[in-house]
């Protein structure tokens, strides 16, 4: 049973669940992945803490992990990129494997042809994710360079994320696309939507299907489904959650599992 | 913390969560309702059992209730109409109050002006919900008459529900609207979308805003938000979950709580 440490924010959790369901492609209820979801919207703001302006969200995240444990989760996914600042701290307090959204994204990027010759990876994310280097460090360890919006541009990204959190999704599209364009103009071939609020606004943009915008939420969902189907014996090889280099679906939706994932 | 006994089906659970979030109208993550959601998609088919063609889903439903209990839920909602066949059996095994979707819908219908003079209530639902009389009995107890599709018409509704469960939502719209139209033609002023798969297909139809199609999922979500806001002291009077006659928002979206629910 997949445990989802959610509520950061609640709409992003719903978006993640929807992507798990879509990616599973079930014909009946019973073919879906059982999930236990803690939408712990009470967890304090992640970016505020990282920037030194708010309480530590870790204690409430641990409470949510405990809820998932006692409810019977066997693996945990966290549909919030900024929350991965605490990934190691959370993994240290639970025996349940916790997928790492950034590792999943790195795996996907790595499987692209000429991945590292295609220019830096653009990152659209919260101030917290950028300040903590959550993506830039993992990408650098995998041999990728990365670029992020600077100054007022990054403030525009953060305001747009706030708009999505407040339910004003349509208003967030234009500023987010403007900032994605600036990253493409600076030489990025791929821009990662590295905050789970962003694909709520941009998931249906043609640039996603073109592979120019990468949806971290969707890749996390695909990785969860791949693990589940692998455990059911529908896929090979077996997948270890969150392990660097673990096989996950590639950027443009083709499965690495001989096509069975998409079948 | 709102507990959601879900997975019947998984997309309907996501739809319900989305409606809770929309109805809450939060500006930040932390203003949302914390939820613990068990998407127990493994629960056997409800209609099959009621029609004598499948295993009893009650044991797996009880397991899901136990997961919600240990995870810290303080109240339970079930975004599946057919599952309410087991409402009393589930309420008997837990001290957590379980909202009753049919009572919520009856409350909403009752608050309409001249509610009972406006003709019978149309019911679009699964074979199981109709065979068990889940709606017809509750409506009759409240003094409403009801109508449901007959023969091939009901088979068309059931096929459309199956299409939504299989992710073929667009294909379900035409048959469902055809059957709603037949109920309106037979004298119903309101047709209840009394299976949580149906509003996934029809929620954006103009007939919903007109009050001719009533979304049971949305009404359940509104009732949950009203209870939550009441508990926070934002609403009066206090709301008792699932009690017959408990106040819930009215059919056309106006709040009965002096407008604070919509504020």
TrEMBL record, chains A, B:
NCBIfam families: asp_race. The keyword Isomerase applies. Keywords: Isomerase. One of its GO terms (molecular function) is amino-acid racemase activity. It comes from the Bacteria. This is Aspartate racemase. InterPro entries: Asp/Glu/hydantoin_racemase, Asp/Glu_race, Asp_race. Belongs to the aspartate/glutamate racemases family. It comes from Hydrocarboniphaga effusa AP103. SUPFAM superfamilies: Aspartate/glutamate racemase (SSF53681).
């Amino acid at each position: 049973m997949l445990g989802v440490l959610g509520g950061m924010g609640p709409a992003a959790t719903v978006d993640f669940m929807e992507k798990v369901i879509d990616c599973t492609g079930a014909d009946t209820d019973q073919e879906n992945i059982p999930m236990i979801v803690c939408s712990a919207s009470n967890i304090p703001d992640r970016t505020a803490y990282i920037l030194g302006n708010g309480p530590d969200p870790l204690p409430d995240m641990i409470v949510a992990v405990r809820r998932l444990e006692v409810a019977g989760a066997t693996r945990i996914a966290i549909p919030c990129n900024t929350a991965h600042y605490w990934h190691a701290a959370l993994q240290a307090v639970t025996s349940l494997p916790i997928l790492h959204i950034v590792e999943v994204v790195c795996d996907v990027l790595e499987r692209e042809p000429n991945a590292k010759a295609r220019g830096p990876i653009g990152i659209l994310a919260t101030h917290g994710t950028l300040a903590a280097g959550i993506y830039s460090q993992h990408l650098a360890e995998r041999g990728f360079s990365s670029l992020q919006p600077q100054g007022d541009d990054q403030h525009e990204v953060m305001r747009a994320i706030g708009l999505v959190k407040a339910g004003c999704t349509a208003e967030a599209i234009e500023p987010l696309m403007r900032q994605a364009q600036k990253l493409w103009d600076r030489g990025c071939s791929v821009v990662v939507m590295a905050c789970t609020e962003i694909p709520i606004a941009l998931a249906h943009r043609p640039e996603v299907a073109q592979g120019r915008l990468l949806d971290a939420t969707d890749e996390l969902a695909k990785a969860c489904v791949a693990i589940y189907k692998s455990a059911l014996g529908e896929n090979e090889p077996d997948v270890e959650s969150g392990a660097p280099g673990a096989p996950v679906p590639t950027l443009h939706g083709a499965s690495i599992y001989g096509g069975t994932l998409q079948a």
